[in-house]
């Protein structure tokens, strides 16, 4: 059973990663000038390629439409088997692979975990521990697995709120007395809602969506660009894992908007949910309450991480 939100999938559709009945991914078609109009027929070869034959009997192979995994997962059409590929790329299995490579010495990743407040609250309820205690014991658990740093995402949440305030003030100041209303600013850290807006309302609503990154992606920027300078390490060596409340956050992390080709660095490499963290704990038959407490790390070197807290209204 899929764990992605209903906005991102169709239920009861067995297409095994082939296009659905109505694939809505827009495909760019380069129109080439032709000398004159004529009839043509298209045939499908045994290997699945498409051959166009014009009225003169001349044949040419047609280019296939290029639709990436990110395109499919951002689509409100056919989300079925593609989900399993994404989950394999961003899952406990991938984490175990990274931890094993580090312990074997085949790779030397600097593994950073960023914890959102919602999974901390959820896991604290599951294990009957206070959120602050849960976060400290979870830090111990993750570092025992091989994590180098475990961070709280509160700083990124604060930055997101501050930037949204600045964005609102800029929009407010643009409005001149008696002038045209600049329109509202719509904000959401939910990838499902963003995909819904992009795919169903398009240009009508996109100009009004806030340009501020979500806390997850702001944290990704801090970890991949600020942290390497502070620690004097290669950004490409950092493997950044976020612990989030929703599977749709995997989709957000996989968007090309948050990938830098020049450095070959993605802001967030892997997203796991509280359910997957719970599976990690169960797989090792770990009694979380029996672990020692460890302080969370802090992005600002030399400073102690503040206690776990959340902003009013942030969930």
What does this structure look like?
The chain is of the alpha/beta class and 315 residues long. The protein is 37% helix and 12% strand. It has helices spanning 69-73, 82-89, 92-104, 117-126, 131-145, 154-174, 191-200, 215-231, 248-254, 274-283, and strands spanning 40-44, 50-54, 59-61, 110-115, 149-152, 238-244, 259-260, 265-266, 270-273. The chain has a 4-stranded parallel β-sheet with strand order 5-4-6-9, sandwiched between helices. Strand 7 and strand 8 form a beta hairpin. The radius of gyration is 24 Å and the shape is globular. 28% of the residues are buried. Mean pLDDT is 78; it is low at 6-24 and 78-82.
Could you name the key traits of this structure?
315 residues, 4-stranded parallel β-sheet, 3-stranded antiparallel β-sheet, 10 helices, 12% strand, globular
Task: Summarize the entry for a quick read.
By secondary structure, the chain is α/β, with parallel strands linked by helices. It has helices spanning 69-73, 82-89, 92-104, 117-126, 131-145, 154-174, 191-200, 215-231, 248-254, 274-283; strands at 40-44, 50-54, 59-61, 110-115, 149-152, 238-244, 259-260, 265-266, 270-273.
């Amino acid at each position: 059973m899929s764990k992605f939100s209903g906005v991102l999938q169709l239920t009861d559709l067995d297409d095994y990663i082939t296009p659905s009945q109505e694939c809505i991914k827009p495909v760019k078609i380069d129109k080439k000038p032709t000398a004159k109009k004529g009839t043509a027929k298209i045939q499908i070869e045994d290997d699945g390629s498409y051959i166009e034959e014009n009225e003169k009997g001349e044949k040419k192979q047609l280019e296939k439409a290029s639709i990436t995994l990110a395109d499919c997962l951002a689509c409100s059409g056919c989300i079925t088997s593609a989900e399993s590929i994404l989950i394999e790329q961003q899952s406990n299995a991938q984490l175990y692979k990274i931890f094993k490579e580090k312990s074997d010495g085949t790779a030397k990743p600097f593994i950073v975990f960023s914890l959102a407040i919602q999974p901390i609250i959820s896991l604290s309820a599951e294990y009957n521990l206070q959120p602050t205690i849960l976060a400290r014991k979870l830090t111990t658990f993750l570092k025992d697995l091989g994590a180098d740093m475990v961070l709280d995402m509160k700083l990124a949440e604060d930055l997101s709120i501050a930037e949204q305030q600045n964005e609102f003030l800029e929009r407010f100041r643009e409005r001149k007395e008696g002038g045209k209303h600049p329109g509202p600013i719509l904000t959401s850290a939910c990838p499902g809602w963003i995909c819904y807006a992009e795919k169903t309302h398009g240009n009508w609503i996109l100009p009004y969506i806030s340009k501020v990154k979500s806390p997850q992606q702001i944290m990704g920027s801090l970890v991949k660009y600020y942290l390497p300078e502070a620690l004097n390490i290669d950004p490409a060596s950092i493997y950044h894992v976020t612990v989030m409340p929703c599977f749709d956050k995997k989709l957000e992390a996989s968007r090309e908007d948050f990938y830098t080709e020049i450095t070959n660095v993605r802001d967030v490499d892997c997203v796991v949910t509280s359910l997957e963290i719970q599976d990690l704990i169960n797989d090792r038959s770990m009694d979380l309450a029996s672990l020692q407490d460890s302080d969370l790390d802090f992005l600002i070197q030399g400073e102690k991480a503040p206690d776990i807290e959340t902003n009013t209204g942030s969930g």
